[in-house]
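Good day; I would like, with your permission, to put a structural problem before you. What I wish to show you is a protein chain and, alongside it, a tokenised description of its three-dimensional fold. Here, with my thanks, is the record as I have it:
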Amino acid sequence: MNILCPVCKNLLMRKGNIYQCENRHSFDLAKEGYLNLNMHNSQNTGDNPQMIRARRDFLNQGYYSFLREEVDTLLNEEDTLIDLACGEGYYTSYFKCKDKVGIDLSKTGLKYASKHDKSTLYLLNSIFHNPLADSCADKVLTIFAPLAKEEIVRLLKKNGIFLLVRPDRDHLIELKQLLYDEPYLNETEIPEIDGLKLLQEIPIRKKEKVVGQDIRNLFMMTPYYNTTSQRDKEKLQNVDELEISFAFLIDVYRK
């Protein structure tokens, strides 16, 4: 997969642990294995270490393995794949595509991902301003992350496929019922993306007993953790187990 120099936009070539363009702009692989090509000053540095740790510990218990396996059925071994907002690489590392790139702004996440997965090149970069060449990917994937619509269309080859994974209406509803006086359902309107055609929407769900610290880790990895009052957060402290609905939608688009 062609990676462009973030300074001059010429092709980067790898020489050992260094990526360099013809103008001699050089970028070293970090000791863990990820490549920092982020040239944009931003307050957004991706998920914080606490959220990364909670998500890693929860996912490693296998609760979402059924989702990872379902996404894998939509990929091929000959695919070039870009995972936008890949985090700590739980999903990316599982896929057996011939060429994989994961992009995220969290150094904590990428350190873990690149240390444990040598089959993927992980880039520290914004998903909205990434250094990959036009039309370089057979598949682009976004799981529980903002939509970088223009970049998705730019990166896909003709007839390339974009996979969007997002929560269904009642995802984690039991957790919300425990926490909030007025639990809400998720919005599920299908996003429109200029340049892409929706082929299908695949619902996938499972109900499972979540126990102990896994309950609190699950809550900490959700976007509403930071908007929940301390009083409501404390409702989870003495909960030892909870039957929770995991409900997702996989939207499949073609360029």
